[in-house]
Amino acid sequence: MRSQRGLLLGPARLCLRLLLLLGYRRRCPPLLRGLVQRWRYGKVCLRSLMYNSFGGSDTAVEAAFEPVYWLVDNVIRWFGVVFVVLVVVLTSSIVAIAYLCVLPLILQTYSVPRLCWHFFYSHWNLILIVFHYYQAITTPPGYPPQGRNDIAAVSICKKCIYPKPARTHHCSICNRCVLKMDHHCPWLNNCVGHYNHRHFFSFCFFMTLGCVYCSYGSWDLFREAYAAIETYHQTPPPTFSFRERITHKSLIYLWFLCSSVALALGALTAWHAVLISRGETSIERHINKKERRRLQARGRAFKNPYNYGCVDNWKVFLGVDTGRHWLTRVLLPSSHLPHGNGMSWDPPPCVATPSASVMAV
Questions:
Q1: Is 185 a known active-site residue?
Q2: Which residue of the set 101, 174, 177, 185 is catalytic?
Q3: Which residues share a beta bridge with 195?
Q4: Is the pLDDT of residue 1 over 60?
Q5: Residues ≥6 apart with Cβ < 8 Å to 360
Q6: DSSP strand E in 230-271: where?
Q7: Residues 170-190 pLDDT 10s
Q8: Average pLDDT score over residue span 309-327
Q9: End-to-end Cα separation, the chain, in angstroms
Q10: Which of 301, 225, 214 is closest to 261 using CA atoms?
Q11: What are the residue boundaries of the Palmitoyltransferase DHHC domain, all occurrences included (predicted)?
């Protein structure tokens, strides 16, 4: 078996050696010289994966999927603007339907106190949605300063080759490190980090409330419009005007869009609420889970040093220092900055000093 293998591989090795010898000569054609250089480069890459002590199957798979990662990152980067425009268009369409189709109907049936309540709540919710979405897409998430040597770093970013503070991670789409990075959101065309995390969550929360409000409040109108559409193909056909037909279809569109967004965005908001209650980000959740298993195998307990308790975690996240801040900073539009600079994580004055703990950073 080995002799047959040697007979097969012998001519192939001889051809490669001839190509390598020809590659050294200047009279070698440029195409052949390029093939020889690529062969040498590929050989060095394979040897680096095989003989590097930090290499392994994970490194090989990551190197193999690098073109796929590059393609996905570039697609998300370029489609971010499209997603932002889509959010603006869909939200504007719901607001337009509410003013042009729903408002004339409820003016004929609702009492004055009920109309006043709906007018106040709907506009308050809409203002908060627009404010927090604008702040989330225009506020930079925060980046570690480059060229400084006095940064309290826990590691060096292997892509930026700069010190990386605690809770900082590299975004392959933005191609830079982000302070307290949670994730890159294509619907914002921006990273969610230290300075805009509150605006991102507030937008998700108030958008969910707005969708629930629209879908629940328009349920009766939706049923009437659906029943009217079912009669379009009857004989004789019903005498609906063009405006009434457009109103029926708009109400169907409003209810289905708001209900689907309420379910999807509500689940995402609930997930982020759980992470905030634990004092974690989306990335830290996976890191802490892995660290918890590692320490548990050694008989040690894991505790997140950024977890100050459920209530205090929300105070730190929302920037609530006093009781009136729940009104001025949470229920009303506020552009106040979060606690800290995103590079050092000393406990804020509003929470007690946590006990010593262990965490992978």
A1: yes
A2: 185
A3: none
A4: no
A5: 287, 288, 290, 291, 294
A6: none
A7: 998 888 899 999 999 999 999
A8: 93
A9: 52
A10: 214
A11: 155-286
Written as one letter, the residue type at 173 is I
Identify how many contiguous H helices and E strands the chain contains and give both numbers.
12, 6
Q: How confident is the model at residue 204 (pLDDT cuts 50, 70, 90)?
A: very high
Query: Which pLDDT tens digit goes with each residue over 23-77?
Result: 544 455 666 777 777 887 777 776 666 555 555 566 666 666 667 666 666 677 7
Share of the chain above pLDDT 90, in %: 49
Residue 214 clears pLDDT 70, i.e. is over it: yes
Residue whose C-alpha is closest to residue 317's, from 197, 179, 169, 207: 197
Two tokens at 135? 């702040």
For residues 326-358, one letter each, b for 16 or more C-beta atoms within 10 angstroms of the residue's C-beta and e for the rest, the string is eeebbeeebeeebbeebbebebeeeeeebeeee
Contacts (Cβ under 8 Å, ≥6 apart) of 123: none
Question: Which residues lie closer than 8 Å to 63 by C-beta, 6 or more apart?
Answer: 45, 49
> What's this model's pTM, rounded to 2 decimal places?
0.78
